[in-house]
Amino acid sequence: MKVLITGAKGQLGYDVVKRLEKSDIKCLGTDKDNFDITEEKQTKDFIVKFNPDVVVHCAAYTAVDKAEEEKDICYRINVIGTSHIAQSCEKINAKMVYISTDYVFDGEGDKPFETTCKPNPINYYGRTKYEGELEVQKYLEKFFIVRISWVFGSHGNNFVKTMLRLGKERKKLYVVADQVGSPTYTYDLAKLLVEMIQTDKYGIYHVTNDGYCSWYDFACEIFKQADIDVKVYPIKTEDYTTKAKRPKNSRLQKDSIYDYSRLQNWDAALSHYFKNMK
Ligand SMILES: NC(=O)c1ccc[n+]([C@@H]2O[C@H](COP(=O)([O-])OP(=O)(O)OC[C@H]3O[C@@H](n4cnc5c(N)ncnc54)[C@H](OP(=O)(O)O)[C@@H]3O)[C@@H](O)[C@H]2O)c1
User: Fold this and answer.
1) Residue 59 Cα: closest atom of ligand 1
2) Domain residues of the chain, as ranges?
3) What's the pLDDT tens digit per position in 28-70?
4) How far apart are CA 237 and CA 242, in angstroms?
5) Is the dihedral of CA 142, 263, 210, 241 positive or negative?
6) Can you spell out the DSSP letters for 228-254?
């Protein structure tokens, strides 16, 4: 099996490449240096020439707030870029993994969203990620659409790293406590993706670490495990203004992944992350 990964310099792509290498699966991690996914010819020529059996598409425009202002580039990367990848996969009959997000949902209600729930994104980034899903389904049958949330990993920027920095700079912090979801540890997710691509169980999946928490709970656990003495206060979404709206309920129903190894609870994943970072 031969696998091509996009966004290999990003948080998730980096760990997917590492996991494939560990599993002795031939792979090529690509980034903008190899091809820019918004450039149709460059992208298609590269993928068709490499002729992989699977493409794991991790590249994306991920700046959620900036996306409200940079709509054009966000659309070109998340929708048109994804379409180029899907069309390339169609041409060479490759499987495609498309990484999507909890932000395709509106966050209404307090039940976990099922894979069959109708997406209704409330910010521009979420809208483009959902349109990316539609492009994948338009061209392919052999696809895995994997919706994930609250990503953290050793490589790149994320909430854990931001909290660690702020915790050292400040004596007190205010963190949103009425948005609930599940952190996703890229190390654990990469392991599951490598299992998944070796099957033909195509479809839409929700994959995160087990358990739910608020951003406030997540921050408190980070400081507890990192042994940082900072006072954390819970606040409401309304008290923390951002350009893009965030869903209050980001819980994803994960029954569909229990054919695979279940991801450990999010706090155990955090502890593994700290051990790995040492
Ligand atoms: N981060 C989260 O909390 C989160 C939550 C839910 C879902 N997701 C999804 O999970 C996936 C992985 O996210 P991540 O956190 O690993 O993202 P990331 O760290 O921002 O990495 C994205 C990668 O894509 C590359 N990229 C951007 N535009 C490109 C282009 N035109 N051509 C080629 N490469 C390009 C970036 O390169 P440059 O840095 O050079 O631009 C970067 O290496 C994405 O699909 C994202 O939408 C993320």
Assistant:
1) 24
2) 2-150+184-209+252-264
3) 999 999 999 999 999 999 999 999 999 999 999 999 999 999 9
4) 9
5) negative
6) ---EEEEE-GGGS--SS---SB--B--
- 60 C-beta closer than 6 A to ligand 1: yes
Ligand 1 centroid, distance to 91 Cα (angstroms): 24
2-150+184-209+252-264 homologous superfamily: NAD(P)-binding Rossmann-like Domain (3.40.50.720)
Whether the pTM exceeds 0.85: the reply is: yes
- Residue 201 to residue 123: CA distance in whole angstroms: 30
CA of 231 to the centre of ligand 1 (A): 32
Of 79, 218, 66, nearest in space to 151 by CA: 218
Query: What DSSP letter does each residue of 66-112 carry, written as one string?
Result: GGGT-HHHHHIIIIIIHHHHHHHHHHHT-EEEEEEEGGGS---SSSP
The contacts of residue 79 (CB under 8 Å, 6+ apart) are 128, 131, 132, 135
Q: What is the pLDDT of residue 37?
A: 98
Q: Is the CB of 12 under 6 A from ligand 1?
A: yes
- What mean pLDDT is predicted for residues 119-126? 98
Whether residue 278 has pLDDT greater than 90:
no
- Cα 62 to middle of ligand 1, angstroms: 5
